[in-house]
Amino acid sequence: MNDPFLQAEPRTEAAEETLFAGKHLHFVRRENWEFAARAHAVGAVALIAVTPEDELLLTEQYRPPVGRRVIDVPAGLVGDEASKGDEDWRDAARRELFEETGYACDALEPLFTGPTSAGLSSELVLFVRARGVKKTGEGGGVMNERIHVRLAPLDGVEAWLREEEAAGKLIDPKVFAALFFTGRDKAGRS
Q1: Could you tell me if 52 and 75 lie in one domain?
Q2: Which of 4, 17, 59, 143 is most exposed by smallest CB count within 10 Å?
Q3: Is residue 67 domain-shared with residue 27, that is, in the same domain?
């Protein structure tokens, strides 16, 4: 996979109007459509990792836009800092996996790239399978992320997710994509 973040149609800067430029996001108009665009990142990676104990590696974090704690897969931006502008997706995936969870991996396998919210944002996310994961650090994120590492047993994961949801947490749809790639979906098919 050469560049998982290439657009299907090349962007033309002349057709875009920046309506607002914040530190991390820009609000843009293109062809009468308004949407958010990342200021610096080229895309995002979402990691699908299963421990040797057959547990799906997840994160839990308070997310201000939805005002709730969210269960998600380890994920993060590619090239979001000036020093990482030309960052390779593999480096970003390894970095995010370790920063958020304290786990390292032996190998990465790109699975697919898709939009995070095609009507709201230009952001694309690359789903990556992390193989040979092992705990090597603390995790928890950087700065003020306050990420909690969660391990969901694949056997019974649907019930586990329902319990988390009943406790008031939101489940990010990327979790269900991860379950699809682990050979199980919400209905429990293997």
Answers
A1: yes
A2: 143
A3: no
Say yes or no to pLDDT of 183 above 90. Answer: no
pTM of the model: 0.88
User: If you search the block for the tokens 């994509």, which residue do you land on?
Assistant: 177
In order of 18, 35, 170, the CA distances from 32 in angstroms are 12, 10, 32
Q: Looking at residue 49, what is its pLDDT?
A: 97
For residue range 28-78, list pLDDT tens digits in order. Answer: 999 899 999 998 888 999 999 999 999 999 999 999 999 999 999 999 999
Burial classification of residue 2, based on how many CB atoms lie within 10 Å of its CB (0-12 exposed, 13-18 middle, 19 or more buried): exposed
Domain ranges, residue 22: 11-40
Q: What CATH number does the domain containing 155 carry?
A: 3.90.79.10
